[in-house]
TrEMBL record:
Keywords: Kelch repeat, Repeat. This is F-box/kelch-repeat protein. The keyword Repeat applies. Transmembrane segments: none annotated. Pfam families: Kelch_1. SUPFAM superfamilies: Kelch motif. CDD domains: F-box_AtAFR-like. The lineage of its organism: Eukaryota, Viridiplantae, Streptophyta, Embryophyta, Tracheophyta. InterPro entries: F-box/Kelch-repeat, Kelch-typ_b-propeller, Kelch_1. One of its GO terms (cellular component) is nucleus. Signal peptide: none annotated.
Length: 488
């Protein structure tokens, strides 16, 4: 496939482009070991992390071109674009204009259109005319293309691999970047290529909603929610689905849902459920979420279930559970939705679980899936799924347990880094964040009241590694009201 694609490059033009790129390389010296580039002089700095000494260029070439065995000139052209991008945006692009012109006039540029397919597809690309690019004006050219000389499809692939914390700065470059970022198309590309960044969204007793980026150890405050005073003071539940953060609570007029949109970075009322409820079990997978059970506005315990599609903002009623329950927990595992624990309508503690098959639209009851049960004074079960493995934080014994799917049993893994028994599990968050478990709770110490974010990766062997403190959030109180993990 590569030989067939390479044969379509005009030989003289390919040699001319390669010679110009290499000549420019010789003038500037050897290619640096680490390529770092500034996309916007004063707004932000992004380090690409392409090491010429390791397989970094092969990894990027595989992702962008669709095959691992790339010729050296292809990889260098990609690296060249990334390296000179800073010069272009700082107005020093004249010395590179001849190279960009030659490359942009090529009849096509190889790129992978579907990474799920093993075949590399080559698409004909029309050269950008001067009329389309607004003549020779560099300002017009920068508004009509993302990166000079790079076709839009390849440019968008590059942007999909950028950290989403850089997207707000990217949207400030020009109108075209702004439209691309706000359209949500990059997040669709990220889903297609399996690019996921998990952020923690947290609300504490003395802190409004904030987002935490674990990879950069960076906190970002969300805009204030424009809700009424009743919603602000009432108990709330939260759920992250797709690029949305849903917060459930009660307003003066009744139960309501507020939605934070990652694309617009703003709050707005969300479409209400067909049967509004509270104290429900919930879980999300990609762009869908399921809420099960809970209580209606009159306090009646429910067994009804609804599915939310964040792409269209629609709630769909799906088959009921076998038992009504409230104060239960939900999660996705192995492509199915589960509900465990909770209290029945007779205030009896439920030890059984229920499994919902999305393909057959049926529920299956699992006896003794949560043998400890849940009392009316306890929080819902603190559960999290990492790599399709279920873990739970035991509120009474302060340990982490792992669920054995084959034997329907729980095994102790390691102690919790904080005490959960002091408040019956309330005010504590136990979440999955990618391939790690997070325990978020308050602490009173010499520095006053702080929120500690503890992290542990169970992949390295149960009990083998200790908990790592990801961050210490000061002046946030000691009680975690709501916590949700958004992966996109």
């Amino acid at each position: 496939m590569q030989a067939a694609g390479a044969s379509r490059w005009p030989g003289s033009r390919r040699r001319r482009v390669s010679a110009r790129v290499c000549a420019n390389r010789n003038r500037s010296g050897e290619l640096p070991k680490k390529l770092s580039f500034c996309w916007w002089r004063s707004s932000f700095w992004w380090s690409g992390g392409l090491d010429s000494g390791d397989n970094g260029s092969e990894l990027v070439g595989e992702r962008l071109f669709g095959q691992q065995d790339q010729s050296s000139w292809q990889k260098y052209i990609l690296a060249y674009f990334l390296l000179v991008r800073n010069d272009y945006f700082s107005g020093e692009s004249k010395k590179h204009s001849d190279v960009f012109c030659d490359i942009s006039e090529l009849d096509f540029f190889p790129y992978a259109t579907d990474l799920d397919s093993e075949e590399l597809e080559l698409k004909e690309q029309k050269p950008i005319s001067k009329a389309q690019s607004g003549g020779d004006s560099s300002s017009n050219r920068s508004n009509d293309c993302y990166f000079p000389g790079l076709h839009d499809d390849l440019s968008q692939d590059c942007l999909a691999w950028a950290s989403r914390s850089d997207y707000p700065s990217l949207s400030c470059l020009n109108k075209r970047f702004n439209l691309l970022i706000n359209s949500g198309y990059l997040y669709k590309l990220r889903r297609k290529y399996g690019i996921v960044e998990h952020w923690v969204y947290l609300a504490c007793s003395l802190m409004p909603w904030e987002a935490f980026d674990p990879s950069r150890k960076r906190w970002m405050r969300l805009p204030r929610m424009p809700c009424d005073e009743c919603f602000s003071c009432a108990d709330k539940e939260s759920l992250a689905v797709g690029t949305q953060l849903l917060v459930f609570g009660r307003e003066y007029t009744g139960l309501a849902i507020w939605m934070y949109n990652l694309l617009t970075r703003s709050w707005s009322p969300c479409t209400p459920m067909n049967l509004p409820r509270c104290l429900f079990a919930s879980g999300s997978s990609g762009e869908i979420a399921i809420v099960a059970g809970g209580c209606d506005k009159n306090g009646q315990v429910l067994r009804s279930v609804e599915l939310y599609n964040s792409e269209i903002g629609h709630w769909e009623t799906i088959p009921d559970m076998n038992l009504p329950r409230r104060l239960s927990s939900g999660f996705f595992m192995d492509g199915k939705f589960y509900v465990i624990g909770g209290v029945s309508s007779q205030r009896d503690s439920l030890t059984c679980g229920e499994e919902y098959n999305l393909e057959t639209r049926t529920w299956r009851r699992i006896l003794d899936m949560y043998p400890g049960g849940t009392s009316a004074s306890q929080s819902p079960p603190l559960v999290a799924v990492v790599n399709n493995q279920l873990y739970a934080a035991d509120q009474s014994t302060n340990v982490v347990k792992k669920y054995d799917k084959v034997n329907n049993a729980w095994n102790i893994v390691k102690p919790l880094p904080v005490r959960a028994d002091s408040s019956n599990g309330w005010g504590l968050a136990f979440k999955a964040c990618g391939d790690r478990l997070l325990v978020i709770g308050g602490h009173r110490g010499p520095r006053g009241e702080v929120i500690l974010l503890h992290s542990w990766c169970p992949e390295g062997g149960e009990g083998g590694a200790d908990w790592e403190v990801l961050s210490v959030k000061e002046r946030a109180g000691v009680f975690v009201y709501n916590c949700a993990i958004m992966g996109c």
